[in-house]
Amino acid sequence: MLVVVLLLGAVLGGALTWRTHGDRADAATRQERYGAVMTAAGTEVTAFVNMRYDRASESVDAVAAGATGEFRDHYVRSADEVIRILQRHRSLMTGRVVWSGVTSISPERATVIVATTGTVSNTRTGGATRPRDFRFRVSLVHTGGRWLTSDIEFVGDSP
Predict the structure, then answer these.
(1) What are phi and psi of 5, to 5 degrees?
(2) Is the pTM of this model over 0.90?
(3) Beta bridge partners of 154
């Protein structure tokens, strides 16, 4: 009888240890996914709010590098026009992410809200630097081992 109780205790202990290890592995995977999504969204938005007329092609390429699907196709198709506008208006836009938060996440898709602060100067501002804050909703998909932006939308008002 004692052998049966000890054997049952050992099996139960082993099962609990295995389950705890699996739970920790799942939590680690979720945390890694969360971090990768936040990094990808922050990188894409940073590229989106840092545009320079004197490096227009590089600016546009930086956004396209983190994009996928219809969003990327549309952005690449309009790249020449974006470059012309940047150069014609001598636009300099700088910015940085001030906060972000994941609103939904799964192994294949995620949505992140990202807020930025920065400045803009161009011919419309008379060359003067003006503050510019934005909020974006960034949709991402996991493809080819990377999180890429499938859509980016302005959220809320901008000054």
Answers:
(1) -65, -45
(2) no
(3) 136
Q: What is the pLDDT of residues 81-130, one digit of tens each?
A: 999 999 999 999 999 999 999 999 999 999 999 999 999 999 999 999 99
Angle at the Cα of 64 from the Cα atoms of 142 and 129, rounded to 5 degrees: 120
132 residue type, one letter: R
User: How much is the pLDDT for 30?
Assistant: 87
Residue 28 pLDDT = 82
- Fold classification of 35-154 is Nuclear Transport Factor 2; Chain: A, (3.10.450)
For residue 1, the SS3 value is coil
Q: How many degrees, rounded to 5, is the angle at CA 151 between CA 149 and CA 155?
A: 120
How much is the pLDDT for 37?
A: 97
Strands, sheet with 92-105, edge to edge from the N-terminal-most edge strand: 51-52, 92-105, 109-121, 130-143, 146-154
Alpha-carbon distance of 73 to 54, in angstroms, equals 24
The residue extents of the domains of the chain are 35-154
